Known about the structure:
Elements lengths: L4 E5 L6 H12 L8 E5 L5 H8 L4 E5 L16 H7 L3 E4 L2 H7 L3 H13 L3 E6 L3 H5 L3 H13 L4 H4 L3 E4 L13 H19 L1 H6 L1 E5 L7 H5 L6 E4 L6 H8 L4
Parallel strand pairs: 1-2, 1-8, 2-3, 3-4, 4-5, 5-6, 6-7, 7-8
Bound molecules: phosphoenolpyruvate.
The site of phosphoenolpyruvate has 14 residues, from strand 8.
Amino acid sequence: xxxxxxxxxxxxxxxxxxxxxxxxxxxxxxxxxxxxxxxxxxxxxxxxxxxxxxxxxxxxxxxxxxxxxxxxxxxxxxxxxxxxxxxxxxxxxxxxxxxxxxxxxxxxxxxxxxxxxxxxxxxxxxxxxxxxxxxxxxxxxxxxxxxxxxxxxxxxxxxxxxxxxxxxxxxxxxxxxxxxxxxxxxxxxxxxxxxxxxxxxxxxxxxxxxxxxxxxxxxxxxxxxxxxxxxxxxxxxxxxxxxxxxxxxx
Length: 250
Ligand code: PEP
């Protein structure tokens, strides 16, 4: 049985004071123990978040990292730094990083390998844009992204990875995918992993859906057999919404 994981990607929101506020509110909420809950604040709020989350069941993740341990990479943050702060997860290859910061599949693969080498669990984002969807390229594009991201990993690493299928046209638009459509692509991702690493491994990998997930539609995704949680952007910025997403069964 895969434990579902719901992660909040705060993007470039929430300075230290706002982080304190949001986490205080989340800590006051009762969260479903059936779900693994993770928050991913911006770098500058990570250490504050780490302190506030001590003793809670909420895990900490970062939104990006460089693949090197240290070096002359101005403006970058290394996996060792994230580990030292207390991160367990790191989002890799979010479409906004691919789109605005030129992250390639090769860079994503470097980062995924480096995350594992530093005992961080990558949440790897894949997904097509609207044009690719209209051109019927979703399956080939996602196949390519998944295969490249996982290239050179061991079976032990692959079984711990989290993949987020995030159709770009659904991110921040208020237009989410249909549960069944997302399930179909996520099944494809699981089949790709089964082909490359074996069925047993593929059955252990948690694959989330992301893209305009809200309290009103989370159930539709969580009811799908292949979907193991969600990566939530906008709706993770308010405790009441994120709490309602995590507690969607109530
Ligand atoms: C995201 O940033 O990963 C995301 C899914 O954003 P939103 O939920 O706002 O669409």
